[in-house]
Amino acid sequence: MRGIRRIKGTAQREAQALQRDDLFLVLERMGDCPIDIRDKALLLIGFAAAFRRSEVVGLYCDDIEHFRQGIVLHLRRSKTDQDG
Q1: 46: nearest Cα among 10, 13, 84, 75
Q2: Where are the domains of the chain?
Q3: Is the pTM of this model over 0.90?
């Protein structure tokens, strides 16, 4: 069966992207304890930068540079740049 799928090809199932309004609903329902604040920040960074899940979990504190206008995130590896 794998050989047939390789020759014929099959459409991949893609996960549906999180929409802005849905993100705001999720953020509203989260609490204000330190873990929830951390999770909110990760969700917002991932959404604003259009990161994949693997890219968000691969971030370290050292990868964030703070500037007056905002922040710069340094992405070590991604699906499209695996060498970093």
Answers
A1: 75
A2: 16-84
A3: no
